[in-house]
Design goal:
heterodimer; A: about 400 residues; alpha+beta; 7-stranded mixed beta sheet; 14 strands; about 35% helix; B: about 80 residues; 3-stranded antiparallel beta sheet; extended
Chain lengths: ~400, ~80
């Protein structure tokens, strides 16, 4: 049987280094032998090859490099798996994920038990050999007339909008817990009293709730050589971890606001709205909030939902303008378009019910374990935050699926 | 002048709606788009009753916890 793994990889744009060529050649020989004799399962062969392929570090590095190149090839190739293959692959990945990730991360042995070799991509120490790779079909330049662009291209993320909406402040130390004393239903009530009449007894009651601090953090590790050989990239990576911790913090707060928001149950407008759309849903939720003596001032929607609102036309193509949705405001509420909001969902809130207290972003560099003798460093990046809201105020925020609320509003 | 209608029968009790437990929610399939939604049982029951949705079978879900804790839940 014809089997040439190296040729197949290179044909698809992979560039193998010396170690990877050795590994692929060994695997290829073993596979060919097995297929000819029809004796052994391929997974066992790969496992055996892994065990005999030099040191664990080398194996991990080779596999990671191969996995990265295979991913590029997959992206540029049209590949289709049938449903059974997809299920099997997913099951293998799920079953072996923890072991494989740990093996790649720590460089420890992979395949000592009956495990697969999937999920080879995992965070690892930044090294000269594993952080930057050549794109599919890209080779080292052989001429002088080339330029290494000074700017890096980054993945774009949704804007961190919550801190523009909710009151927030930075403090040196964020309290571990905020205890909120909240009014509970009062016993008795004031009333008009006749002459010589007994005044009604009133008892005010309170309940204490607690809010806990959260820590958002991440770390990077790198070798001395990586920092030495990649000035621009290293500085960018340090900025990136700070950006990503802030992103996680922002996303965490949004997730909390959504989890806290009250679900839609019913409204006075049920069964009364003709052809309801997202703007109708927003206004109905605004009404529910305002009916509780709050003032809804913010609507958060996925951009796709907002685009749909702007494209409403008559059957002859004439655009229908929505008088409630003008200049980025919907019935007086600020409309925020964010990809952090799932398409088809809506969040409406009185932003004054929330406040947020956070620490500075703390970044420290140090070593742990054997990093000192292997010339490696660790940078930790962390910040603390507490999202302050009273339970009693949660009726000032509403979250739900636009389609189901539209169905409730629809006039039969 | 304002008028007030007096109840001659039982005025009824105030109904408190819980939002925090999994049992407060139900999974439904909306007929309009065929998608599964997890909604508060009040809305879910209303939409099913209006024949705009059906209860979704074999659908499990989690309710994400809120940020606050009742005082008795706080770790000492």
């Amino acid at each position: 049987m014809e089997l040439n793994l190296r040729s197949a990889l290179e044909k698809n744009g992979a560039t193998l280094d010396e170690n990877q060529i050795k590994f692929v050649a060994g695997l290829e020989t073993a596979l060919r032998s097995s297929l000819e004799n029809n004796e052994t399962k391929v997974s066992e062969l790969i496992k055996k090859e892994l065990e005999s392929a030099g040191t664990n570090d080398e194996v991990s590095e080779q596999l990671r490099g191969l996995a990265e190149q295979m991913e590029k090839i997959e992206k540029s190739s049209i590949t289709s798996l049938n449903s059974t293959q997809k299920r099997t692959l997913r099951k293998e990945i799920e079953e072996n994920r923890d072991d494989i990730v740990e093996a790649i991360r720590s460089g420890k042995s992979l395949g000592t038990e009956d495990k697969g070799i999937f999920q080879l991509r995992a965070a690892a120490v930044h090294l000269d050999t594993n952080t930057v790779s050549l794109g599919a079909g890209v080779t080292a330049p052989l001429v002088e007339n080339v330029e290494d662009a000074p700017a890096l291209a980054f993945t774009r993320y949704p804007e961190n909008f919550l801190l523009n909406t909710v009151r927030n402040m930075q403090v040196a130390k964020v309290k571990q817990t905020i205890f909120k004393t909240e009014q509970a239903p009062t016993e008795g009530d004031a009333a008009v009293v006749a002459e010589a009449g007994t005044k009604p007894l009133i008892q005010y009651k309170f309940v204490k709730n607690a809010l806990s601090r959260k820590k958002y953090a991440g770390r990077i590790e790198w070798s001395e050589e990586f920092e030495m050989d990649n000035d621009m990239l290293f500085n960018a990576i340090v900025n990136m971890i700070e950006r990503d911790v802030i992103k996680t913090w922002n996303n965490g707060m949004i997730a909390d606001v959504i989890a806290n928001a009250v679900a839609f149950t019913t409204s006075p407008q049920d069964d009364t709205v003709i052809l309801p759309d997202a703007s109708d849903v927003a206004i109905v939720l605004q009404g529910l909030i305002d009916a509780q003596n709050y003032a809804a001032d913010t609507v958060v929607l996925n951009p796709a939902t907002i685009v749909s609102l702007m494209l409403i036309k008559k059957t002859d193509g004439e655009r229908i303008s929505n008088p409630m949705f003008v200049d980025g405001r919907l019935n007086g509420m600020n409309v925020i378009a964010s990809n952090q909001m799932t398409a088809g969902q809506i969040l409406v809130l009185d932003s004054s019910i929330y406040s947020e207290i956070h620490s500075d972003i703390n970044m420290r560099v140090g070593t742990y374990g054997t990093q000192f003798i292997t010339n490696e460093n660790t940078l930790i990046c962390e910040m603390f935050s507490i999202l302050d809201v009273a339970q009693i105020d949660l009726v000032g925020s509403r979250y739900g699926a636009i389609a189901t609320i539209e169905a409730a509003l629809l006039k039969p | 002048m304002s008028v007030k209608i007096k109840n001659t029968k039982n005025a009824g009790e105030v109904e408190y709606i819980s939002y925090s437990k999994k049992a407060d929610y139900k999974a439904i399939t909306l007929k309009k788009d065929g998608k599964v939604y997890v909604e508060h049982k009040t809305l879910a029951d209303t939409l099913v009753k209006k024949k705009l949705a059906e209860y979704a079978k074999d659908v499990d879900f989690d309710i994400e916890s809120r940020t606050f804790k009742h005082i008795e839940d706080v770790e000492k």
